[in-house]
What we know:
- The complex is a heterodimer of chains A (187) and B (260).
- Chain A has helices at residues 2-14, 77-86, and strands at 23-38, 41-47, 51-57, 60-68, 94-102, 110-119, 122-136, 139-146, 159-160, 163-164, 171-181.
- Chain A is mostly beta strands and 187 residues long.
- Chain A has one domain (21-181): Lipid/polyisoprenoid-binding, YceI-like (Lipocalin).
- In chain A, strand 5 and strand 6 form a beta hairpin.
- With 260 residues, chain B is an all-alpha fold.
- Chain B has 2 domains: 3-94, no CATH class; 114-257, no CATH class.
- Chain B is built from 8 helices and no strands.
- In chain B, 23% of the residues are buried.
- The chains are: A mainly beta (187), B mainly alpha (260).
Amino acid sequence: MPTRTLLVFLLLALSxxxxxxxxxxxxxxxxxxxxxxxxxxQIDGTSHAARGKGVCNAGECDFLIAVPxxxxxxxxxxxxxxxxxxxxxxxxPLVTVRTRVAxxxxxxxxxxxxxxxxxxxxxxxxxxxxxxxxxxxxxxxxSGSIPATLSDFKIDPPSLLTIPVKNEIPVRVDMTWSSSGTxxxxx
Amino acid sequence: xxxxxxxxxAVANAWLLVAPLLxxxxxxxxxxPSSVNVAADSLRSAVVRAIRTTISPNSFVAxxxxxxxxxxxxxxxxxxxxxxxxxxxxxxxxxxxxxxSDLGFPPEQTKPNPQEQERLDKRSHMLxxxxxxxxxxxxxxxxxxxxxxxxxxxxxxxxxxxxxAALGSATAGLYFTxxxxxIFAPKIPGTPTRGPIRLHKALAWIxxxxxxxxxxxxxMAFAQKDRGERVHGIASAHGAVAIVTAGAYxxxxxxxxxxx
Lengths: 187, 260
């Protein structure tokens, strides 16, 4: 009995301790730009205020990106406030994006990610959204476009001169992620 | 007795085996203390039980026994008690998906603010009304400008002049109602005015006074005509002021509807 216990003890101790994440990713820089079309205007609203983190375990990485709704700047404070109102941005201040990506996919130049986006109090799923990847040392640059629509989030289309904007509001994504290594804390 | 040498061996080697685990727990991310420490505690507890099992005369230790190992120096009684509680839980052997709290946003950026949403809703409602009324106002405004060309003449009484005056009064009434919805829309603190809306607001300093002055001058001109006089004095500026006012008003609409 003691010998068997000792063996179990040694096996337990010698096995690799699976404590904490295998690796983590931190969003270093980002540019998120929504585009709104109106017969009289083409509007782009940009935010650089997104924060993100990725946690990898057993070859799968869970990513979370969040950006304050009010951080988007379209170049017109009146329009931004109206966007904030239409998107219920004071009630739901953050846009969050969650996705799970296989760690092996970081080696390729294109990935297709399933996204879960929470915005304006609604959750919408986007399947197989393509993103371009560029690896530079410990950093990965990711770019792509999320084919979001106003109806996905039950937002009434704002109007100008009684003409509503188009339902499509594609969001251009440019992000730089850096790996913070095994078990180390994010910056 | 083979039990004693094996037990002694286990106790002696436990240090070597546990030390890296303790170091790992201390070196782990400060943001994830709970999951790492729970796992480390769980492993420590397993080590304790193994040692107890090895050196115990009965080769048995109850799962809920909170008593510390005699002479133990690498963990406290509290830790041992806590560890026994941890035995009921599955080992936290991997870090879960990140949450919003991991991202370090200041609380004011993540906390819902229903009062501000209410203020934004009211503001948008009032400015939409402002926009609609502003567009409606352009109809009598344009009509007033057009009929202005026919309001002159030498006659003391003229239907065209009356029509022009009526349209002007309607324009002024609608204009000030439109302005009310812009002036009294709730302001959002901490939002500096940027972009084309600045021009829109600046033009209000032209068409606002113009919209007060034009009817006053128009009334003076109307009275002079009624008396059979030629329009003279400051009243003769009525037409010019009206044109500037209408121009500023049109530009104010264009400033927010066209992209420059």
